[in-house]
Amino acid sequence: MMHLVVAMFGLLIASFGAFGLIRPPDFVKLARNFWATPKGVHYAAALRLALGAALLLAAADSAYPRALAAFGYLSLAGAVIVVLLGHVRLAKIIEWWGRQPDIVIRLWGLIALAFGIFLVSATLTGPIGLR
C-alpha cells in the first residue's frame, strides 16, 4: 500500500517538474504564491514529513531500498529545515530563485521530473510492485 502512496507523490512531483520545464514563469509564480503565507511553510513541512515517512515505509519493498531510505531521511530532514528557516527566510530564498534565468528554472523542473519518475519506477517495479 505504501508503495502506491510514494508513486502518487512521484506523479505529483513529476507533474510539477514538467510544469516547470514547460512554463518556467508560471512555475515561479506558483512557487511564490505557495510561499507567500506562513501556511506554505506548514504545508511544505507536512508534505515533506509525509513523503519521508512513506519513503521509509516503502523502501524495503522497492527496487532501490537504500536510495528510497536515503531520500526518506533527506525528506524528514528537509521538513525540519523548512520549519527552522521559517516563512520570511524561505520567501527570500524563493524570491532569489525566481530571479534566475529560465534555463535554471527549467533545470530544476527537469530534476523534479526525473525524481518523480524515479519514485514511480522504484516503487512500482520493486519486489511487490508491477513487473
Describe this entry's structure for a reader.
- The chain crosses the membrane at residues 40-60, 67-87, 107-130.
- Keywords: Membrane, Transmembrane, Transmembrane helix.
- By secondary structure, the protein is an all-alpha fold.
- The protein has one domain (2-124).
- The chain is 85% helix and 0% strand.
- The protein contains 5 helices and no strands.
- The longest helix is centred in the middle third of the chain and has 34 residues, at 65-98.
- It is globular and about 40 Å long.
- It starts with a helix and ends in a 7-residue tail after the last helix.
- 28% of the residues are buried.
Distance between the first and last residues' Cα = 16 Å
Main beta sheet: none
Average of pLDDT: 91
Number of helices: 5
Q: How large is the radius of gyration?
A: 15 Å
H/E series = HHHHH
The fraction of residues in strands falls at under 5%
Q: How many separate domains make up the residues?
A: 1
The dominant shape is globular
By secondary-structure content and strand pairing, the structural class works out as mainly alpha
Transmembrane segments: 40-60, 67-87, 107-130
Keywords: Membrane, Transmembrane, Transmembrane helix
Descriptors:
131 residues; mainly alpha; 5 helices; 0% strand
Task: Describe the protein's topology.
Elements: H1 2-22, H2 24-34, H3 38-59, H4 65-98, H5 102-124
Transmembrane segments: 40-60, 67-87, 107-130
Keywords: Membrane, Transmembrane, Transmembrane helix
